[in-house]
Design a protein that fits this description.
With 130 residues, the protein is mostly helical. The chain has a domain of 54 residues. It has three helices and no strands.
Length: 130
């Protein structure tokens, strides 16, 4: 139950993080300001205070990493539990017989004894040459 909630929150955080990164203004876009039209002294523009989008991205990234760690923890706990293959290998093999047949000997088809004869229409093999 909690793993399902974590996966849903994880996917929503990933989508929100992708959306926030895509709508942000990149630092490389300010490079044109350094070559004549801007007042900054550096190539990539003035740093300034972090914007609301930058803070939101940092918070979402932190929450994304925390949900990743939580999902990894639950996956590790699930891997420690014995699986179906491990359980069946440790138990002795048991024959599974339907309830109707328990205590009864199964009926087997009757096989005639002796060598079966070849049908008359099949030609005999030619003798081997020496």
């Amino acid at each position: 139950m909690i793993e399902t909630i974590l996966v849903v929150v994880h996917v929503l955080l990933a989508a929100a993080l992708i959306g926030l990164v895509l709508i942000q203004h990149g630092k490389g876009a300010d490079a044109g300001a350094a070559f004549g039209s801007g007042a900054s002294a550096t190539v990539f523009g003035a740093r300034g205070a972090t914007s609301f989008l930058s803070r939101s991205t940092a918070i979402l990234a932190t929450l994304f990493f925390l949900t990743s760690l939580a999902l990894a923890y639950y996956a590790m706990r699930a891997a420690d539990q014995a699986g179906v293959v491990t359980k069946t290998r440790s138990e002795p093999a048991k024959a599974r017989v339907p309830a109707q047949l328990q205590g009864q000997a199964p009926e087997l088809p009757v096989v005639p004894e002796g060598k079966p004869e070849a049908p008359a229409e099949v030609p005999a093999a030619p003798p081997a040459k020496q």
